[in-house]
Structures are given as structure tokens and as C-alpha cells.
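<goal> How does this chain fold?
<body> The protein record starts here
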Amino acid sequence: MAEKRGKLLVIDDAKDNRTLLFEILADNYKVILAKDGPQGIELTKKHLPDVILLDVIMPEMDGYQVIKLLKQGDDTMQIPVIFVSSMSTTDDEERGFQLGAVDYITKPFHPSIVKARVKNHLRECNQKKLLAELALVDGLTGIYNRRFSDAEMEKAWSICRRNKSCMSVAMIDIDYFKSYNDHYGHAL
């Protein structure tokens, strides 16, 4: 099965670093470039990349501030962030991991290591998405299950409470569905 072409966002204030990472990764992935933290946050919200490669030392807003903001957003909190930085002490790496980074690559880096780490994190990200989707779908019928229904009901109820509006619910039952299960079997 062909691996899905991932979307990466590189956030680095140094043009040489952005260009180098683009050249290393562009053959295998769609790579979006941001020159600073605020632009990186804007592009993250716009494109929702699969993985973010983030420099730590940047003017105006450093990488630590960027990841803090990303981890607070509902749409961006699950995006894996890999720090790519010249800050190479154990304390620097530890701080990055404590803020939610999935990896920490120190500069100067080796291109093959960057490729391998991005590939691994993208594979893990895709597997998590697939598992999340499978958890919401009935294996036999292919339709959304009770877990999905409960989550959607909670969202709809929150919207109704916020807007002070009403909500109606209809429950539908399929007669003699047991015979369908008995004939076609249950998902294992």
C-alpha cells in the first residue's frame, strides 16, 4: 500500500535552514515554509500540516512560545512537533519534550536522520488517525457507531446550550437485525 504523501510545515527564521530542509524533504512530502513564529501559527491553522519542524531560537516569538500556542488549539494540539535547533543541552531537549514535542533534532543535522525521523513520525501520525477513524465506525456495517453518536450528540448539545436553542433527537431501530448478524457474522 502506497504511503500517503504527508504535509510538513517548517518554521525557521533562517532562510538557509528553511531552504535546506525544503531540499531534503520536498521529494517525498509537500513542504510549507514559515519565516517566523506568527507566520508559522497562521500557516498551521490554514493548512493543518501532518508534522511541524520548528526552530527554537527565533525573534519576536521563539519555538517554545509557538508550541505552547499550538498545543492550546483544538485543531492544532495533536500535530506532532519536531524541534530542529542548535540548542543542544539536555535541559533544552527536556524543555522541548515537556512542552509537547515528539522529537528534538540538533543542528547541524544529517539529512538522512531528518528524513528517517520525519518518516517515522508521519507513519505514527497516520496510524493514530486510522485508529481514531476505526474506533468510530462499525466494522460490519461500515456506519458510524455509538461512540461517534455520543460525541456528536455532545457537540450538538453544547451548541444548543450556547445558542439557547432546542434540539430534537430521533431513535431508529432496524427490525430483525439479529438475523442479519447471524447470517453475515460479527466483526472480530
In short: DSSP finds seven helices and five strands in the chain. The helical segments are 15-25, 37-47, 63-72, 90-98, 111-134, 146-163, 177-184.
